[in-house]
Amino acid sequence: MADALPIAEARSLVARARAGDFSALEQLYRAYERPVYTLARRLTRSSDDAEDVLQETFLEVCRSLKQWRGDGSLWGWVRTIAASKALMRYRREKLREWEPLEDDAAPASGDLPLQLDLEAALARLPERSRAVVWLHDVEGYTHEEIAELMGMTTSFSKSQLARAHERLRRWLGQGAGG
Amino acid sequence: MSETRHGTSEELLALRDGEGSAWVREHVTACATCAAEVERLEQVRAGLRALPSFAPARDAWPAVLEAARRERRRQRFSVWSGVAAAAAVVVLAFAVLHRSSQPAAVDVALQKAMAESAAMEQMFESLHPDRRALSGQAASVVADLEDQLARIDAALNDTTTWRSDPDRVAGLWKQRAGLLSALVDVHETRASVAGL
Hints:
The complex is a heterodimer of chains A (178) and B (196). In chain A, helix 3 packs across helix 4. Helices cover 66% and strands 0% of the residues of chain A. By secondary structure, chain A is mainly alpha-helical. Chain B is mostly helical and 196 residues long. In chain B, 79% of the residues lie in helices and 0% in strands. Chain B has helices at 9-16, 22-30, 32-49, 61-98, 103-126, 136-157, 159-164, 166-194. In chain B, helix 2 crosses helix 3 (32-49) and helix 6 packs antiparallel against helix 8. Chains A and B meet through helix 2, helix 3, helix 5, helix 6 and helix 8 of A and helix 1, helix 3, helix 4 and helix 6 of B.
């Protein structure tokens, strides 16, 4: 996503918000509310979880505004906070979803593709696997950045992305070979 | 004859992302199956990027604002004395250098206003405002007072205010003390009504 705020406007709003101007803080919130919520929806299991992440993200933004140096994208900074908050939920909830799903087993003969649409196929991915796909393919994070966010290795991120795309291919009805 | 195996998903994804190995780059130029798979992976990525965004069902801004105000109160209480002391040094230095005919007046008015503000701030914090439930009307009054307080704090935290208009600074501290006094009144009234 392109930054909703031009850099000059972002700097001005952040300076005012740091000085205690709540209307500037609200403008920041309104500018990033939807992209943060969308990211949170893609990385969490429910709309309630996503709303929690949205709120936690902006509380952290309020607390940490002084840490944004103004020399990079404000959206990039806010987005990383949002991703961290969403991924932190996995650690808190101790999700155990790295075990292969049933459909990861070798395909049985006559195993028909599911013919899901992309939205449904994405939603069917395990949560952290979906997070890797979204962060890499949509948000543009590198495997190194994803590994750091998730506390995993770079090769782990790469293999999760590959496995997720293999699943998507089956579920989208796009068998190997096109 | 070169290798006959196809590229793995990981290798083809790396190629899609512009990071493929020399082998896979060469392989894809000669293998229609792998070339088609890279094209398909590009299409999936484009499809993901085109998925619609979501809007939250509830507006989280009121909760964020309330938390931001709490945070501001906490920060103000913990740092105000340091800011005030540093600012006082600035204004006094300015007064001595540029207004040598009236340093005493600036000094006295400022010191008095800052002392009043400090006393009110301590009284306000001693009431533990974050722990009190307020009626809708009282909460609205408190929100308005705190917004005014935030604007004054912003002006006092801006060093240009001190440099360009030092006479105004004492007035701001006085206004600050007045607003804190009003906040104390609201919370004390609430405590009295509730029998706390």
